[in-house]
Amino acid sequence: MNTGIIVDTCVWIEFFRKSESKLTLHLKALLRERKVIMVGMVMAEILQGVKAPKEAKLVKQSLGKLPYLEITRDIWEAAGEMSASLRGTGITIPLSDLIIACVALSGNHEILTIDPHFEKVDGLRLHNIP
């Protein structure tokens, strides 16, 4: 798979809540350009916030159409090692975010996020909104 853009959960939340925000409009453009890829951690985080089964089905159908990246053993190990290394310097980032970061790093993908945690991960390419 070519490199793509992993969209963090915080961006999807805004996408579903604010249909005309600058961030949502940018994500819509990325979706039209087929640049967005999905990872399981983001899918799980989105689904944990869904309130109605009917809504969950719609979300799964919609997001299920996106290219999907599996998390390999190497990525799990990298996330654990990265967490330990960052904690050693006094930086604590949620493991879920580190897993997403390691998936991105493993395929040279960008991350679209508004979460400042990701700025602390060396080598990670963050997608900037023009």
Describe this structure in words.
- This protein has 130 residues and is an alpha/beta fold.
- The protein has a single domain, classed as Rossmann fold.
- It has 6 helices and 5 strands.
- It has helices spanning 9-17, 22-32, 40-48, 53-63, 73-88, 95-107, and strands at 5-7, 36-39, 68-69, 110-112, 125-126.
- A 5-stranded parallel sheet has the order 3-2-1-4-5.
- The longest helix is centred in the middle third of the chain and has 16 residues, at 73-88.
- The two termini are 25 Å apart.
- The relative contact order is 0.20.
Provide a compact summary of the structure.
The protein has 130 residues and is α/β, with parallel strands linked by helices. The protein has 6 helices and 5 strands.
Strand order of the largest sheet: 3-2-1-4-5
The rough form would be described as: globular
| Structural classification | alpha/beta
- Number of DSSP strand runs: 5
Question: For the terminal residues, how far apart are their CA atoms?
Answer: 25 Å
| CATH fold assignment | Rossmann fold
Specify the number of helices: 6
* CATH class categorisation: Alpha Beta
Summarize the helix and strand pattern as letters: EHHEHHEHHEE
Mean pLDDT: 93
What are its keywords?
globular, 6 helices, 130 residues, Rossmann fold, 53% helix, alpha/beta, 5-stranded parallel β-sheet
